[in-house]
Amino acid sequence: QAQLVESGGGLVQAGGSLRLSCVASGRAFSTYTMGWFRQAPGKEREFVLSISRNGRSSLPTDSVKGRFTISRDNMKNTVYLQMNSLKPEDTAVYYCAAAPRPFDAIAILASEYEYWGRGTQVTVSS
Fold it and tell me: Using CA atoms in the order 38, 97, 20, 24, what is the torsion angle rounded to 10 degrees?
């Protein structure tokens, strides 16, 4: 079983940057495919990015292409979401999630993920 804790959210002006972190404890972090999702008020949870156990990144959702990247440090049990050129429409609660998957696998569906953090709020002002 894994416990996930996100951090790094906050209030930022449009055009700014934030880096979210998600620290995992419990079962070995390196055995999980990791993902970031977000949920804005009144909207469904949306996939953002996924990263395989060996560091291969998925394609991002269209709305964040060229602006967001995902990375992981298996020695620190941490996955990161670097967010640049933030827009007001990026305002949401951001969640990290963990999925037991084969070594090179990514996962883009929320149903594939077994463990979830509680989320961190990101607010982008115009």
Answer: 160
